[in-house]
Hints:
The chain is flat, with a radius of gyration of 16 Å. The chain has a two-stranded antiparallel ribbon. The protein is 22% helix and 10% strand. It has one helix at residues 38-50; strands at 25-27, 33-35. The chain has a domain at 26-50. It is of the alpha+beta class.
Amino acid sequence: MSLQHSSEDKIEVIRTQPGQSLGCSIIDEQGREVPITEDMIQDACRDLEKRLVEPAKQD
């Protein structure tokens, strides 16, 4: 298994209820608790994927 997957790879996520909470939150600049959504995680993964660089070849 490679660490570098194509953004075309799809992994099915099964929830018992649509919109089910992921059960975690962050605290924003105003001190409010903001639930972390699946969309937030997907956006972060896409941002990280854009930053991937090819490792230098080792001889």
